[in-house]
Specification:
Chain B: Pfam families: BPD_transp_2 (PF02653). Chain B: It is found in: Cell inner membrane. Chain B: Keywords: Cell membrane, Membrane, Transmembrane, Transmembrane helix. Chain B: InterPro entries: ABC_transp_permease, ABC_transptr_urea_perm_UrtC, LivM-like. The complex is a heterodimer of chains A (569) and B (370). With 569 residues, chain A is mainly α. Chain A contains 23 helices and 7 strands. In chain A, the strands form 2 sheets. A 5-stranded antiparallel sheet of chain A has the order 4-3-2-1-5. A two-stranded antiparallel sheet of chain A has the order 6-7. Chain B is built from 15 helices and 4 strands. Chain B has helices at 2-6, 8-30, 41-66, 74-93, 106-110, 126-150, 155-174, 200-226, 228-238, 240-245, 250-276, 286-299, 305-324, 326-343, 347-356, and strands spanning 186-187, 191-192, 195-196, 278-279. In chain B, strand 2 and strand 3 form a beta hairpin. The chains are: A mainly alpha (569), B mainly alpha (370).
Chain lengths: 569, 370
């Protein structure tokens, strides 16, 4: 160390203050000294010296690692980290170092925990992490540079401290951190913990980490046992290690090699299953989107026989409703999303009723004309949205609880938003089914769909029922739009992208059959996702379209054709 | 030619077409560029484009107006004809492309293709390309129609699967692997039959050719409609099952009209491509096919010349409106769909006829099969 360092040392030592104080006091006493008191004086000097020496000693033990960390060489820093890692009270400090928050306060020449503030950094005491020291400009502090080696030492130190923490979650984290690059010392720590550990998850994690080490050990039974155990575990690094072992000539022992090969095979077969599960999940979620998009159409087209080409644009209105709700409640995105479900239903249903009253009711019995007129409506709605909101896509945010994914194990994770949409689709479907089965409106809708003339004769106001049915179908399209806003771009072309697909789903499932729509949507979604790896996304879609075109030639009334008199209507 | 005496509108539409077809190229060839009688290259191409659309509308009217099959994918046949023509024009570029490859079009060189795909063989020959202009849409229509009509897919189901057909083709042609230029399509043409495609003479000739094809097609269609075959087709439109009970093979008649209309649309596409200088997958988009339907509906379906009037009028309105206020175009198109279906089921022609002869009933206003 240079002299400069030494001075810095003195400056930072809190103990040096009483020394200076005692000297000053001694000086004051000195002037009015009587000779007989010399002995006392000497004694005091001696005492002061002792205090000073004691202080010097404390200064050496406690802050010295910090000083080594601050200005020492890399080797000294490593030593300092290891030293700090032995005392549980230093956990906060080490974690701050890990997060890059531990900084060198230049003015005071000491280490502090710095957190971002308006001015620059807010400095706090490194030990308790609470006492605020100062609020300084950004350049008043310097960052500590860590090498990769230091990082790994640090990770282990933190892990070692956390390994004995009270919270099981923290211990689990610690085990994972330590296992990343385990050396003898780390293993020793883990073994020690294994004896004390009670929590099942932590136990399993420690066990896994130890097996991962045993796999390379010279002790053959331990090695075989480790391979045996690891083949049942879903762990990416276990899989990697086993694959290395299974390589030809990786190990001399044929028994180990054979077992490793068997283990890899077993894991791979499991991986295939997971891939299949994932594909089915993706397929189901795509199917859910298709079902959501086509279920409203199943009502207007299936039950009423009305071709509504503006269906996609009603979904678009639902998606834009979500956008508007989020603009109105910018701080409560999740609440806005939930609230937009009924709002989108209302908006789309009102527009739907207006379309029915204004246009469609003049065209009943002329499906081709209805198709053209509603196509006109769809162009109208598209252009309205373009004029009001701009032709660009609007961004709808995803609330926190919908983003991210559900990590089941190392090999299988399912995204939350897809999962929620699947659930949402089933909810909407059930709700719709209940409305049709159990409410008065549902009864009237079914009666009119089966035999309009007879229903009218029984006193059902068919005109009103028509409007309500169309409103219901449109409202559901709006609700589907809310779901779509979470997975695709919200723009004027949103509806167009889904209109061909949703007609296909309805026709494939069988017109007038809600369950048919559900089955058709899910099976097309899954078929699409299973084809994608072989054919690519676009070709898969084309293949599915061609399949449906051919299917309709064979069975023009879809998977589940309507039977009886209603089918002829 | 008795129908010309019976229906004055036919005569006037034919006269107008003949006038446009002959006068504009004639004026352009004999006058110099600054003469007031001279039409700019832009307007010659524009009028040529309108006439192509009129031919396309005519083809849809044959199949929708007379056979009652609402095809929402007529644009697919148009585009296929256009691609056949485009492939011929691509091969004519030769070494003048950016990469100067004598065999491969630029986009293939760009995609690192080493040789011409088999389906591009023969397109350097004009006769073969012309044959494909009719065969490509014809074969597709034949296969599709044979399957659909045989299994008695009718009404909205048929409409929707024709839309799915064009949508599938749209997706397919967007793929670079298809070998049709992907997103950008085929463009940057140099010459046709050895003549510079940009030159005024060629433009005028294309207009002349398009106009005479349109007149020829109109007369041919009118002849078919008036023949026994046409009467059976009309009868199928009005009462399919009754015609079947009378012993006619309904599906064969429908198939015939469908394939004929597809070939006519292919011809329209082939005439269109040299005049606009590009063909890309957007021609397959379902919206384009729906626009064709609105031309025919606005003009008045089941009259043949109505489709021509409708196609020209709607496209003229599109040119004017998209130039003046781009936002208004879709409002107008949407409004046209709604108003025509609600208020003008027989289109403009129906309106004219009602004013001239109030008690004349058109075929199209009869009972519609579902």
């Amino acid at each position: 160390m240079t002299t400069n360092h030494f001075e810095n040392d003195l400056k930072t030592l809190p103990i040096s203050e009483p020394v200076a104080g005692s000297l000053r006091r001694n000086g004051a006493v000195f002037k009015s000294l009587l000779p007989q008191t010399w002995a006392t004086l000497w004694l005091m000097f001696f005492l002061a010296f002792c205090v000073n020496a004691a202080a010097q000693e404390t200064a050496d033990t406690l802050p010295q690692p910090l000083e080594q960390l601050r200005i020492g060489s890399m080797a000294e820093r490593e030593q300092a980290i290891e030293q700090l890692g032995e005392d549980g009270r230093n956990l906060k400090l080490l974690q701050a170092l890990q997060d890059g928050q531990l900084m060198d306060w230049k003015a005071d020449s000491r280490l502090v925990i710095a957190s971002e503030s308006a001015k620059g950094y807010n400095l706090r005491d490194p030990f308790d992490g609470k006492a605020v020291l100062a609020d300084v400009e950004r350049d008043a502090v310097g960052k500590l540079n860590l090498t990769n080696k230091l990082r790994s030492v640090l990770r282990k130190a933190v892990g070692g401290l956390q390994l004995n923490a009270d919270s099981a979650d923290m211990r689990l984290e610690a085990v994972k951190a330590i296992a990343k690059d385990a050396d003898d010392k780390a293993l020793q720590m883990l073994r020690k913990r294994l004896e004390k550990e009670r929590d099942a998850a932590v136990l399993a994690a420690i066990q896994e980490a130890l097996w991962l080490q045993d796999i390379n050990s010279d002790d053959k039974p331990a090695r075989l046992a480790a391979i045996e155990a690891l083949k049942n575990i879903n762990n990416q690094s276990a899989y990697n290690r086993l694959r290395e072992l299974a390589e030809p000539d990786a190990v001399a022992d044929p028994e180990v090699a054979a077992q490793a090969k068997a283990a890899v095979k077993k894991i791979e077969s499991r991986l295939q299953n997971y891939a299949a599960i994932e594909t089915v999940f993706f397929g189901l979620s795509l199917g859910a989107v298709l079902v959501l998009a086509s279920i409203g159409l199943a009502i207007t087209f299936g039950v009423m026989g009305v071709i509504n080409m503006a269906h996609g644009e009603l979904m678009m209105l639902g998606a834009y409703t979500t956008y508007v709700m989020q603009q109105l409640l910018p701080n409560y995105l999740g609440t806005a999303l939930i609230l937009s479900i009924p709002m989108a239903f209302l908006v789309a249903a009102l527009v739907g009723v207006a379309i029915e009253r204004g246009i469609i009711r003049f065209l009943y019995g002329r499906p081709l004309e209805t198709l053209l007129a509603t196509f006109g409506v769809s162009l109208f709605l598209q252009q309205s949205v373009r004029s009001i909101f701009s032709p660009l896509n609007r961004s709808v945010s995803t609330p926190d609880w919908m983003s991210g994914s559900w990590q089941i194990n190392d090999f299988l994770s399912l995204t939350w938003n897809r999962f929620y949409i699947l659930v949402f689709c089933l909810l909407v479907f059930t709700a719709l089914l209940q409305i049709l089965k159990r409410t008065k409106l549902g009864l009237e809708v079914r009666a009119v769909a089966q035999n309009r003339g007879m229903a009218k004769a029984m006193g059902i106001p068919t005109a009103r029922v028509d409007a309500m049915t169309f409103g219901l179908g449109s409202g559901i399209a709006g609700v589907a739009g809310v779901a779509l806003s979470q997975i695709t771009n919200v723009g004027p072309n949103l509806g167009q992208a889904y209109i061909v697909d949703s007609f296909m789903v309805v026709v494939f499932g069988g017109v007038g059959n809600l369950f048919g729509t559900l089955v058709a949507g899910f099976s097309l979604g899954i078929a699409n996702k299973f084809l994608e790896p072989y054919a690519g996304a676009v070709l898969a879609k084309i293949l599915v379209l061609v399949f449906i075109i051919l299917f309709i030639q064979k069975k023009p009334r879809g998977l589940f054709p309507q039977k009886g008199r209603a089918a002829d209507g | 030619m008795n129908f010309l005496k019976q229906d004055k509108t036919y005569a006037s539409v034919l006269m107008a077409l003949a006038a446009v077809t002959l006068i504009i190229p004639f004026c352009n060839l004999i006058t110099s560029a600054d003469s007031p009688l001279h039409f700019s290259a832009y307007s010659v191409s524009l009028i040529g484009k309108y006439l192509c659309f009129a031919l396309l509308g005519l083809s849809l009217d044959m199949v929708w107006g007379y056979a009652g099959i609402l095809v929402l994918g007529q644009g697919a046949f148009f585009a296929l004809g256009g691609y056949a023509m485009g492939m011929y024009l691509m091969r004519q570029i030769g070494t003048r492309g950016v990469y100067g490859n004598p065999e491969l079009p630029d986009f293939m060189v760009f995609l690192n293709w080493s040789e011409l795909p088999w389906y591009w063989y023969g397109f350097e020959n004009f006769g073969f390309a012309m044959l494909m202009v009719f065969l490509a849409p014809g074969i597709l229509a034949f296969v599709f129609g044979w399957l659909a009509f045989r299994s008695r897919v009718t009404g909205v189901y048929l409409s929707i699967i024709t839309q799915a057909l064009t949508y599938a083709l749209l997706l397919a042609f967007f793929r670079n692997e298809m070998g049709f230029g992907g997103n950008n399509g085929l463009t940057d043409f140099k010459d046709i039959l050895g003549f510079n495609i940009q030159s005024e003479a060629v433009r005028s000739m294309m207009l002349l050719l398009t106009g005479s094809s349109l007149i020829g097609a109109l007369l041919l269609c009118r002849w078919i409609v008036g023949s026994k075959l046409g009467r059976v087709v009309t009868a199928i439109r009005d009462q399919e099952s009754r015609v079947r009970f009378l012993g006619y093979r309904v599906e064969l008649f429908k198939l015939w009209v469908f394939v004929f209309a597809a070939m006519l649309a292919g011809l329209a596409g082939a005439l269109y491509v040299p005049q606009v200088g590009i063909i890309n997958p957007s021609e397959f988009s379902p919206l384009n096919s729906l626009e064709i339907v609105i031309w025919v509906a606005v003009g008045g379906r089941g009259t043949l010349y109505g489709a021509i009037i409708g196609a020209v009028l709607v496209n003229y309105a599109k040119t004017v409106l998209t130039g003046l206020m781009p936002d208004a175009w879709l409002f107008c198109l949407g409004g046209a769909f709604i108003l025509v279906t609600l208020l003008l089921p027989d289109g403009i022609v129906g309106l004219l006829h009602r004013r001239i002869k109030p008690n004349l009933t058109l075929n199209a206003s009869g009972e519609q099969p579902a």
